[in-house]
Write a structure and sequence with these properties.
The chain has 184 residues and is of the alpha/beta class. The chain is built from two helices and nine strands. About 3% of the residues have low confidence.
Length: 184
């Protein structure tokens, strides 16, 4: 069985109905005299992570894992049995984390002697702002004919602060996502 990268489709133009008239979604039509509503926000990946080096690393890991599953890559998508595509999105988030310390070490004395240990005194509560990166990785394997999705795997993981994807991390993620792909 063969596979190729999914061909990039032509950009969507104006949509037309059966009579040839252009169709406009009612969600974007504003009554006359009123300002047009702002377009819906398009959430895109963190640009720092969307680099050519990261894309090449992920493509190499996908090709390696598909080869290990017995699929052969062909350069022409028109003759491939499957089309493969992937999507990566990284979102940077801020969170407030509460940390509770049970007290401080020390010595407590009473009528029966003295003891040392943790937890003497009032507990301390601290709040800390944390910034982290959460990544989502999707791999799609679609049949060329009929154009139908054959396999999809989605993974989410907290990422480190480095903005590069190492070959080891990419290979680990791809092999985890493709472990359920059956090829006869």
């Amino acid at each position: 069985m063969t596979w190729a990268w999914r061909p990039v489709g032509a950009p969507e133009g104006a949509k037309h109905d059966a009579t040839g008239k252009s169709v406009v979604s009612r969600d974007v039509i504003a009554p006359e005299g009123q300002p047009q509503a702002a377009p819906r926000q398009h959430l895109e990946s963190n640009r720092d992570w969307n680099t050519e080096a990261n894309r090449d690393t992920l493509k190499a890991a996908i090709a390696k894992n598909l080869h290990s599953k017995g699929l052969t890559q062909v350069p022409d998508p028109a003759v491939a049995d499957f089309w493969v595509d992937y999507h990566v999105a990284v979102r940077t988030q801020n969170a407030t984390v509460q940390r509770v310390y049970p007290g401080y070490p020390g010595v407590a004395c009473g009528p029966y002697g003295c003891w040392s240990g943790w937890g003497w005194g009032p507990p301390e509560v601290a709040y800390q702002n944390v910034r982290y990166h959460e990544g989502t990785f999707v791999i799609d394997v679609a049949l060329r004919e009929p154009k139908k999705l054959a396999y999809r795997a989605i993974s989410q993981k907290e990422l480190n602060n480095k903005q590069t994807i190492t070959p080891y991390l990419a290979d680990e993620a791809v092999s985890h996502l493709l472990k359920g792909l059956k090829t006869k």
